[in-house]
Design goal:
141 residues
Length: 141
């Protein structure tokens, strides 16, 4: 299966999002509003898990993977792009889609991502984990 990769301005290996079909541009805008930095839609492989690395939190459901930069990443997200003084280089950076992807199904996964990230249970467990790690580090010396 073939795939197409979009970035803001395009490059030698990617297309600019402005040249994408309207449905793909809408997916880009919607993902940006949810705080997603990378969105990947696979052709075949399905995943159903949550991952956390040194830079990103990954939400994987069906053929879609959404990645968001962590609050305090070990390796911060960096792209070579000129930005104005006072602006940051955050938001949607890369959208990789299989040529046979379903926009509606992808939007449903982005909705599920939003519900997961904004859930009270998720906020509680993240804060609890941070508090426990902080408490343990106080007694280590």
């Amino acid at each position: 299966m073939s795939k197409t990769t979009y970035t803001i301005r395009g490059s030698k290996t990617t297309l600019p999002i402005g040249l994408a079909p309207l449905s793909v541009q809408k997916l880009w805008q919607y993902s940006t509003k949810q705080g997603i930095n990378f969105l990947r839609v696979r052709a075949i492989q399905e995943r159903n898990e949550r991952t956390e690395g040194r830079t990103f939190f990954g939400f994987h459901k069906a053929k879609v993977s959404a990645y968001q930069q962590l609050e305090d990443p070990i390796f911060p997200l960096w792209f070579k792009r000129k930005v104005r003084l006072g602006e940051s280089n955050k938001g949607m950076q890369v959208l990789e889609v299989a040529d046979n992807f379903d926009v509606e199904e992808t939007m449903k996964v982005v909705d599920a991502y939003e519900k997961y990230v904004d859930s009270a249970w998720n906020r509680f467990t993240v804060r609890l984990k941070e508090t426990l790690f902080y408490s343990v580090s106080l007694f280590q010396k």
